[in-house]
Amino acid sequence: MGQHQGTVLVVEDSPLFRRMLGDMLQELGFSRVLEAFGGRAALELLTESKPDLVCLDLTLPDISGFDVCEHIRASPLHKDVPVLMISARTLAVDRAQAEEAGANGYLIKPFTPEEFRQQVERVMATRPRKESGS
Predict the structure, then answer these.
(1) Domain coverage including residue 20
(2) Is residue 34 part of a domain?
(3) How far apart are CA 62 and CA 39, in angstroms?
(4) Does residue 53 belong to any structural domain of this protein?
(5) How many domains does the chain have?
(6) pLDDT in tens, 6-15
(7) Which end of the chain is more exposed for a tag (fewer CB within 10 A), N or C?
(8) Cβ–Cβ under 8 Å, residues 46 and 11
(9) How far is 104 from 81, CA to CA, in rounded Å?
(10) Tell me: the pLDDT tens digits for 44-72?
């Protein structure tokens, strides 16, 4: 398992779940985990950072994960950042809407660390390969 390094933004309103995701991401080799408890806080963090991955909960207290994802896709700086949508909602319509909003992956809670790792690797592989000189 290669070291990904880099920064992940975890957008999740449950502190417990946020910590769990942070732990799993650090085990996967990410060096920084930024945390946001809601959509607005996430968008604010995005104005000052460019994460290598966003783990985005669908159901947030203020604006929905769909809206956050659309905002990321609309931003020239972030449009290529992989987004892994995480949700307890199992309906196909939610998954379809997540894809429409630009999510690269959709993971249903609860999930195992192994399922999480597979999804993270899959969405990280969707990034356009760019030399990290910029």
Answers:
(1) 7-124
(2) yes
(3) 6
(4) yes
(5) 1
(6) 999 999 999 9
(7) C
(8) no
(9) 9
(10) 999 999 999 999 999 999 999 999 999 99
